[in-house]
Known about the structure:
Elements (H helix, E strand, L loop, with lengths): L6 E5 L5 H20 L15 H9 L3 E8 L2 E9 L6 E9 L8 H12 L5 E7 L3 H10 L3 E6 L20 E7 L8 H6 L1
Parallel strand pairs: 4-5
Antiparallel strand pairs: 1-2, 2-3, 3-4, 5-7, 6-7
Amino acid sequence: xxxxxxxxxxxxxxxxxxxxxxxxxxxxxxxxxxxxxxxxxxxxxxxxxxxxxxxxxxxxxxxxxxxxxxxxxxxxxxxxxxxxxxxxxxxxxxxxxxxxxxxxxxxxxxxxxxxxxxxxxxxxxxxxxxxxxxxxxxxxxxxxxxxxxxxxxxxxxxxxxxxxxxxxxxxxxxxxxxxxxxxxxxxxxxxxx
Length: 193
């Protein structure tokens, strides 16, 4: 039987926002350096894998909900979600665990807490870069997501304006996890077919 890691999701406080951004950037940079070493061509502005602007945009978006992941009262990660209260097609925008807390069940326990917080969710969606093997394993093998799309040179990610979105790595996987059955008339379900 798998031991349950006791984590708490605490709403992000405004005075913790800057450290949240820095911790998020460090967690992503650590993953890239583990994969590619110091010579990494997947970096954005200021030598980061994920830019400050990307994180701020995620935190400030309509419907966003940000949480700190706490383990024994210590901040060991964070999560940013976009919750659509009408369609219940929700998006996991960012989930990070501090490198010193890796391989302790923190990410999985945090994800279980997210699912418990939003039981009305019909489908969750998220993206991760192709080189984040740890994330790909986590989403598919631990959390039950399915890889449904790959964005790369032959299938580019489009931004909301319809233009090529050149922020971040251009080679990303899109994952979905269906939480409950939907009616065939549900637009979110039709989009997946």
